[in-house]
Every structure is written in structure tokens, then in C-alpha cells.
Design brief:
single chain; alpha+beta; eight-stranded antiparallel barrel; about 45% strand
Length: about 150
């Protein structure tokens, strides 16, 4: 009987303790979600929006502009290799993106496409302003209220 009570008490502690543990530990989002890339090129910076999803094995899928991406993300390091069509250059070729997630939660690294290459920095896009002011807007101190 004592063993049964001890087991029941242990199970109760585990069940009651688990939800609070689960709430206090949130998984690192890694690179899941939207990103804004700025590619440095000899002709000036090029902006690209991307959206990534990483599975439990580190496989990356998603979009780079309109192109489907493929690659890996493990231990803070990103390696993408996918077909991309550049309207500007008028060619389709392999796009390679290599980099890492830095301490400021930005992706930085190198890119290569056709005979072009350079460096990049990617950040999470900032929140969009709320249309019509919304509750996130602040009053204009120079407004006379009319």
C-alpha cells in the first residue's frame, strides 16, 4: 500500500509540475518565420523577403521571394541551395546562402548566384503600423485635435 501511495504522489508531482515547466521553457524560434534580406552587390543592395520553416531534423523549407527554398539549419548555421530566377539578370541558376544566426538575432553570411556573390544581412521585419491608428498609435503632440 505504501508503494502505491508513493507512486501516486510521484505521478501527481510530475503532472502538476509539468505544465509550469512547459510554460517557462519556450523553444528557440531559430529561423522560423519571416526575414528581410539585404544582399550586398557591386550594383548596390538588393532586398529580398523570405519565409522559412525548419523541421525537427533541421530541414529548411519555405520561400525566397517567389522561389521555393531548400536547405538546412543546425547549431545556428544556415545552408540553403535552391534554384532561383533573377528577373534583373534574366537567368535561372543555383542560389547558395550560407550564414549564421548572430547574438543580435540577425542572419549574416555569404550568398552566390550564377557568377555573382557577396555578403548579406537578414533581420526580422518590423511590425506593420496599425491602419487607422489603432490602439498602438500615439497622439500627435502638435495636433490641435481637429
Amino acid at each position: 500500500m505504501r508503494n502505491l501511495l508513493a507512486i501516486a504522489a510521484a505521478v501527481t508531482c510530475l503532472v502538476w509540475g509539468y505544465p509550469s515547466y512547459a510554460q517557462t521553457t519556450s523553444p528557440d524560434p531559430g529561423i522560423n518565420g519571416k526575414w528581410h534580406f539585404v544582399l550586398s552587390t557591386p550594383g548596390g543592395d538588393r532586398d529580398v523577403d523570405a519565409n522559412f520553416s525548419v523541421d525537427a531534423d533541421g530541414k529548411v523549407t519555405g520561400k525566397w521571394g517567389d522561389a521555393d527554398v531548400a536547405g538546412t539549419y543546425k547549431d545556428g548555421k544556415l545552408a540553403l541551395d535552391f534554384q532561383f530566377t533573377s528577373e534583373e539578370v534574366g537567368t535561372t541558376a543555383e542560389m547558395k546562402i550560407d550564414g549564421k544566426l548572430d547574438e543580435a538575432a540577425a542572419l549574416t553570411g555569404d550568398w552566390a548566384f550564377s557568377q555573382y556573390n557577396g555578403t548579406y544581412k537578414a533581420t526580422r521585419p518590423s511590425a506593420e503600423p496599425v491602419p487607422g491608428g489603432g490602439s498602438d498609435s500615439k497622439p500627435n503632440p502638435q495636433s490641435n485635435g481637429y
